[in-house]
Amino acid sequence: YGVREAGGRPAGAEDEAHQWFGKGVYALTATYGGRGGKKYEMIAVVFRDDQTASENLDWQPSAIREDCVQQLRDAGLGSEVLKVAEGCDRFFELGVCERPLGIERWHRGRLVLVGDSAHAMPPFLGQGANQAVQDAVCLARWLRQADFASGASGPAVEAALCGYTAQRLPPVAVLGLESSFLGQVETLPGDVGSFVRDNFFRLTGKTGIAGLVFLNGALERA
What we know:
The chain has 222 residues and is an alpha+beta fold. 45% of the residues lie in helices and 15% in strands.
C-alpha cells in the first residue's frame, strides 16, 4: 500500500478509482483528500506469496517500493500504475489473511464485537467499514428494543445481543466468501490464470452478475 502527493494520475481521474489486473497481481489506484484540502494518491497492490507476511496492525512504513514496482513490471501493468507506485514516498506492507468466521456469540457480558473484530474479511469487495457501520446500526436497534438506555439488563439484554449476532452473521458470512473467491480469481498466476480471470470478469460483467455482487454488499441488512 503506497501513498504519494497527487500528480501521478491522469487529469480527470481524481474522482475515479481504477482497478488493474496483471499476471498474478491486482492493483487499485485512487485519489483522496487530506488535511488542509491537500490531495493524495494511493496504490494498493495484492499478489500471492508463499511466505506469510505480517498483518502490520500498527501500519509501520516499509522500504518495499522497489519490490512493489518490480511486481507491477513483471505483471505487465501499465504506465499509470507504475508512475503512481514510483512516486510514493510511503509504503506499508500488510499481510492479507483469511480468518474463519466465528459462529459463536459475538459478545461476552457487556463486551460486544463489531466490524473486523467479529468478521474480518479479505479486502476485495471493500466491505470492511460498510459492514462495521451496519453492525453498529443493527446493535443499536436491538439494544433499543431491549430498552438498554433506560437501564435494562439481564435476560433482555442477553437476548438482544444474541439477536444482533443472529441477524448479522448470515450476510457477513456470504460477503466473506464472495470476497475471498474474488481475491483468488483476481490474483490467479500465469497466462492460464490471466485467461480465466479475464473471461470470468467479461462474462460476469456482460451478464450483470458483477454489478449484483457489489450491490449486494451495499444493501442495508441491519
